[in-house]
Amino acid sequence: MIKIKQDRNACIGCGACVSVCPENWEFKGNKPIPKKTEVKEIGCNRQAADVCPVRCIEIEE
Ligand code: SF4
Is the shortest distance between the CB of 22 and ligand 1 below 6 Å? Predict the structure, then answer.
């Protein structure tokens, strides 16, 4: 399984991850969280990590 990790303290709540990857990212309060933290296929989570301005999304393959 691929692990999706997010440093929520570093997250600035810009919503870019939700924009590029609504399949696995949604707002919870003022900051998004991943719907699933373990996935079989990376899918758009790669784009979410790439687009994050503070690089707080880490993908462990
Ligand atoms: S792109 Fe990064 S900083 Fe922006 S909301 Fe998503 S996790 Fe937070």
Answer: no
pLDDT for the residue numbered 36: 98
pTM: 0.95
pLDDT score at 21? 98
pLDDT above 90 covers what percent of the chain?
100
Burial of residue 4 (number of CB atoms within 10 Å: 0-12, 13-18, 19+): buried
The two tokens of residue 52 are 């994050």
45 Cβ inside 6 Å of ligand 1 = no
Question: Which of 44, 54, 55 is the best mutation target for the ligand 1 pocket, counting ligand atoms within 8 Å of the beta carbon and taking the most?
Answer: 54
Q: Which domains does the chain have, with CATH numbers?
A: 2-60 (3.30.70.20)
